[in-house]
Amino acid sequence: MNPYLRWSVPFAAAAALTGCAGSPPASYYTLLPSANTMTPAPGTAVPGAPAFALEIMPVNVPLQVDQPQIMLRTADDALSPMYSQRWASPLAEELQTALSHAMTATLGAPDVSALGASAGFPVWRVQVDVQRFDMLLGGPALIDATWRIRQSGAARGKSAATAAVLLCRSLVQIPAPGADLPALVLAQQRAVMALAQTISSAIRQNAHVPPSSDTVQVRGCSRTAEAA
Q1: Which CATH superfamily includes the segment(s) 3-227?
Q2: What is the pTM of this model?
Q3: Whole-angstrom Cα distance, residue 213 to residue 215?
Q4: Where are the domains of the chain?
Q5: Given this model, what pLDDT does residue 119 score?
Q6: Nearest-CA neighbor of 188 among 200, 201, 172, 170?
Q7: What is the rounded CA–CA span in Å between residue 133 and residue 125?
Q8: How far, in Å, CA of 173 to CA of 117, rounded?
Q9: Is 85 in a helix, a strand, or coil?
Q10: CA-to-CA distance for 139 and 135, rounded, in angstroms?
Q11: Percentage of residues in the chain with pLDDT exceeding 90?
Q12: What phi, psi does 110 have (nearest 5°)?
């Protein structure tokens, strides 16, 4: 037997075992809640033909948390990467998917961002810019975001030349139901859902300022009409 092979095979096997022992397997998390953890959204639309569509645009997130690994904020206000605890997809995509899922369920309207809507069909475009996305073990989960909704297409009682626009800032804080990371991810899922329901409320009221709640503070809204 080739002496090189005789020594290299056991060495490679030992190195592989050492690598596996030294690097714990990665766990992947998502902001899209499971069916078991979702709570019914208030004012969910009755099934039927939707009166409008949604266009959930890509979400902007701060660069310091836009990482594959989950970034935890520590008590001394530092960010600590959890190298073995990662998002299932880029954080911006996780947020966009979770917002789309919650808003389509709440409003009973399809998200046509990937397909486009028929000409003349009313569409609410939703843009979200996240300024803070904080995860602190023990909670709360926090999202500080500016969001903008704009109506386009034919709308009943509205001139086709103008579109209703609402620009708001929302601060969402959700307590974690436990002290571990899965509990904090669950709290962040609920925070995204609360933000989605707040934006959905504004759409349902035709771009009027939605009310604040115990978990969502709506701040600094402006309502205008722009050229369609």
Answers
A1: ABC-type transport auxiliary lipoprotein component (3.40.50.10610)
A2: 0.82
A3: 5
A4: 3-227
A5: 66
A6: 172
A7: 22
A8: 34
A9: strand
A10: 7
A11: 62
A12: -80, 150
